[in-house]
Amino acid sequence: MQIIDQQIYLEEVKVSELAAIYGTPTYVYEENRIRDNFRRALRAFKKYYPDFRFFYAIKANNNLAIANILRQEGAGIDAASVNEILLAQKIGLGGEDVMFSGNFLSDDDIRQGLQSGVIFNLDDPGLLPRVLKFGQPELLSFRVNPGYGQCEVGDFVCNAGPDAKFGVHPDQVMDAYRRAKEAGVKRFGAHMMPGSCIRDPDYFRFITELVMDIIGKAARELQINFEFVDLGGGLGIPYKPGDYTLDIDKAAELVAAAFRSKIAEYGLRPPRLMMEPARYFVGDAGYIIGTVHAIKDSYKRIIGTDVSMNTLARPAMYGAYHHIYVNGREDEPRQPLGLCGQVCENTDFWVRERPLPQGISEGDLIVVENAGAYGYAMSYQYNGRLRPAEVLVNGKQHYLIRSRENIDDLVRNVTVPEHLLN
Ligand SMILES: Cc1ncc(COP(=O)(O)O)c(C=O)c1O
Predict the structure, then answer these.
(1) What is the reported pTM?
(2) Checking CA distances to 186, which of 76, 228, 359, 378 falls within 20 to 30 Å?
(3) Does residue 278's CB lie within 6 angstroms of at least one atom of ligand 1?
(4) Is the CB–ligand 1 distance for residue 309 below 6 Å?
(5) What dotted CATH number matches 31-282?
(6) Ligand 1 pocket, 58 CB below 6 A?
(7) Is residue 274 over pLDDT 90?
(8) Separation of 57 CA from ligand 1 center, angstroms?
(9) CATH architecture of 2-29+284-411
(10) pLDDT at 222
């Protein structure tokens, strides 16, 4: 994003032009920023540990145009469901380019997951006999819950630790791999996902040591060879202006040093190191352009926009902060104001008070920052407010990559029984 003469540009396209062509609210992604983010991170990790690969967690943004950018850069896909495996296949990725980390899987999920030949990552040792009923996975890993989780996302509940629903308890890990080995599984990996949006490089060293101590013991005792260790996602981005950024080079250096030292300590054959971030690649490359439709002076002044909780769920869902720019007014003095969307829930009053340009008026365009991850993917249709359009910008070019929904999308799967029609 850049601001020239008070006009906001995404890459080299004015947001006023994008709003005029595509309407609002619209998600817009900067292609070059996604590529820069990916390359910066890959360069750092490969520098310190060359046998390294990223798997993009497609749940954060499942637009196939975005996924294709990351595929072109060399990412595999981390899939949370069978449908995400199918999305990966739509961009030409399958087999061991895809990691399947579902949880509480149905028999159908297991059967389809096995048939697809992706890397199976089990969230619970109890799943193993159910998997074996349908076939033998070629390469199997367990998602370890190392008993520790950390997150910097609003009131977000962490993905690991005693309160998380995910992963295998450390005391069960040895037995899980033992049973898999006894059942004839030949190839193994290990996985965990203990953090979300972490900007402290030392956290990544800490979790590397945690998981390596758990699986190192299993490898030694069971005489198994881990082909990969996946440290999950969690590479953080700053959401508030002035917040520090993650020193990715430092994180990679600390992780690689800890990884190598634990490999030596447990006498392991060096596994491939993997991570499966999403936010770091796409989070700060995505924006929502919205319009101020009405301004109300009641108990306080509230700016009403078309960026509602159904368009961007994160603030209402877990108190996440998203910075807001106002096109044409960034140089104006500020005044504490509220800002909301159009949905009939008071959680849609998603900015209770924030210094915004004092001249903000009806018809102004707002630009909501850091909306590329867990933005559109979490949008929904409540109040008959439909999902927005998605646009990709690259230099001066712009491409519609998902159309705005219309009334047909609202009734697509609805059937009204005959007797209700008269
Ligand atoms: C299993 C798993 N892997 C990867 C990710 C991606 O995390 P992030 O976007 O924080 O990098 C998530 C997100 O929740 C996840 O649940």
Answers:
(1) 0.97
(2) 76
(3) yes
(4) no
(5) 3.20.20.10
(6) no
(7) yes
(8) 6
(9) Beta Barrel (2.40)
(10) 97
